Amino acid sequence: MKYLLMINTDESAQATLGERELAALVERHTAVARALQADGKWVSAARLRFGVDARTIRRRGADTVVVDGPFAESKEVLGGFYLIEAASKEEAVQWAKKLPLRERGSVEVRPARTGATWRGPISAGRQFAVLFIADSDKPLSRVQMFDAIDAHYELSLELAAQGKFVSSRSLEPPPSAATVRWQNGEHVVTDGPFAETKEFVAGYFVIACEGSDEAIAWARRLMVGSDACEVRPVWESA
What we know:
Layout: E1 2-10, H1 11-14, H2 19-38, E2 42-47, E3 55-60, E4 63-68, E5 76-85, H3 89-98, E6 105-117, E7 126-135, H4 142-161, E8 165-171, E9 178-183, E10 186-191, E11 199-209, H5 212-222, E12 228-233
Antiparallel strand pairs: 1-5, 1-6, 2-5, 3-4, 3-12, 6-8, 6-9, 7-11, 7-12, 8-11, 9-10
């Protein structure tokens, strides 16, 4: 079964890291990635650019509005993710514990559902994560859910035909999550998501676009069944 390990971080603390500290952090992530690959557990991973580069699209009646910044106004924001294969949530949590964590940060472990990773050619565009935001007070009906699945499938084909589709995945709801934190020199695991809010990440697409305007245009079409979506550039390798 696939699990998403969502790395949540305090960006203000991360921004103060020196060159040596940052290199050591990258080295530790690389070691975990290699271990996942060696065990056949690796699916994909991405580091997201800081929240200042994010754009959030929200519905306002029949219209949509675009605002600067991430959907959640909190100290901890999603900084990246690993999508892995694991036999159980307990195994996924053990992998989450291998990721480098600081006192101000966490890893949310959430079961993933339908989705795909594209194996065909991808255009030479910049990659963007489109995070679908749902409201726990307004769950989708069965009909709405299948309408959204159908729409996402059709848009996936359109994106793939243009060399813009990278990957996608829907997620189980927050009650299925576990959160791993590093406190007082040890790992602490709690049930539930890292943020106790009405809004939560319900799924994502990673797409390749020429710029943020194109990514936002696709996001407006992709946010079927979502109350909002966050568009964030994926950190490009140097």
